[in-house]
Amino acid sequence: MNPLSGFLLPLLLFSSHLLPSSSSSSEISSLFEAWCREHDKSYRSEEEKSYRRQVFADNHEFVKKHNNEIGNNGSTLYSLDLNAFADLTHEEFKTSRLGLSASSAFDRVNRRKVGRLVGDVPSAVDWRQQGAVTNVKDQGSCGACWSFSATGAMEGINKIVTGSLTSLSEQELIDCDKSYNSGCEGGLMDYAFQFVINNKGIDTEQDYPYLGKDRTCNKQKLNRRFVTIDDYIDVTPGDELALKSAVAKQPVSVGVCGSDRAFQLYSKGIFTGPCSTSLDHAILIVGYGSENGVDYWIAKNSWGTQWGMKGYIYMARNTGDSRGVCGINMLASYPVKNGPNPPAPPSPGPTKCDIFTSCGAGETCCCSFRFLGICFRWKCCELNSAVCCQDKVHCCPQDYPVCDTTKNLCLKTMRNGTIMQVVDARRSSKVGSWSSLVADWIM
User: Fold this and answer.
1) Catalytic annotation, pick one of 181, 281, 381, 396
2) How much is the pLDDT for 413?
3) Active-site option among 83, 181, 218, 301
4) Which parts of the sequence belong to the Peptidase C1A papain C-terminal domain (predicted)?
5) Residues in a beta bridge with 370
């Protein structure tokens, strides 16, 4: 990052509020160049950069118009900013940063209703101050907000029960939780909780790191169960007091409408909308409080620290609408944990290729040079129990075992012996992508 960008961008942003309603082209260009330096943005061509500058200019006018309303009448409780998403159109943003499956959300069976706690709950709670919240994460362009919300809730209750804060693996949920959830194409927190219950635990972020794309499930990692939960509870939809009682006990997963333009460019303050209550995004409530007589939820997002208040948003509470701002009271759930975790599984050892050569844990040895039936040189495929392609350059997942290196695909054989292209979790839009379906070996 340019060392001057941290100074120049706030200065230009401040001056932009003093510009006339239609900023000049040179003023927008200067602001855009400072923004690019601030967010380390570059583009493949001048044509693309010119287009992004136009999108940026449109978002600039939207931000300025909203923020001017704060100074004019004081009724707006939050401000917007030209954040890391300011070069995206609203449609581009919606297709890349959401991921809650609202259709399945309302088909869920409420397994039990949560009762309100006996007695009063605290007037303010912030689980960050209790060390029960991991650092803000970034889902990237993968629509897996549901997995981040679910791991956040499990990380919180695990810390509360065991005293240990452990970052859990969203990638395991994306790759392996396929009964109802669809990885980067969307999902629901309840199903993620049920997956962890059925699997008798979940791996850590460190052991099964986030890649931001759909991959084949690493079944070896399914046996590495570092954190367990025993059940989960659905909060009664529209019962804000029940939700407050739940948050007083632990961080809670919720669905919201995150697709409104103001949500995309939110900067700070108490978000009051207006926004739809059509749920399409998942976040984590980590507390609640009040400021100048206005009540709010403290919510952790999964869009990195360059969005909102270092990755967090305050959302208005007690608004008089039982659905809550952006529907935040409509789809809340949290995991139940009754006891300690099992002993940590032993670390997997390296994969032995021969007496002298080995690959990393969970990798596959592929021979790149063989003579008289003896392999003299090995390469390592990063996939577990993979199929080594005959071109001695690529490998395929074990459940997509047919290498078609002429078409750059991994395929599978149907029962009748014919070859079909596998589309299930990858969806047809991703089929044909060499990088997503055929893995290069690593030296």
Assistant:
1) 281
2) 58
3) 301
4) 121-336
5) 375
Sign for the pseudo-dihedral over CA of 113, 116, 118, 121: positive
Residues 6-23: tens digit of each pLDDT: 333 443 343 333 333 455
Counting every residue written for the chain, the total comes to 443
The band of 131, judged by pLDDT with boundaries at 50, 70 and 90, is very high
Is 281 tagged catalytic? Answer: yes
Section 128-136 average pLDDT: 98
**C-alpha to C-alpha distance for 216 and 61, rounded to whole angstroms:** 43
Which residue's structure tokens are 């460019």? 265
Secondary element (H or E) of residue 167 = none
Residue type, 102: A
Measured distance CA(193)–CA(248) in Å, rounded? 20
In this predicted model, what pLDDT tens digit does every residue of 193-202 receive, in sequence order?
999 999 999 9
C-beta contacts of 309-316 below 8 A and 24+ residues apart: 309/267, 309/268, 310/136, 311/136, 312/136, 312/286, 313/266, 313/271, 313/283, 314/78, 314/269, 314/270, 314/271, 315/256, 315/270, 315/271, 316/77, 316/270, 316/271, 316/272, 316/273
Backbone dihedral region for residue 273 (phi beyond 0: left; psi -120 to 50: alpha; all else: beta): left
Distance between terminal CA atoms of the chain?
Answer: 31
Q: Which residue out of 142, 145, 257, 403 is catalytically annotated?
A: 145
Q: DSSP label at 187?
A: B
What does pTM read for this prediction?
0.77
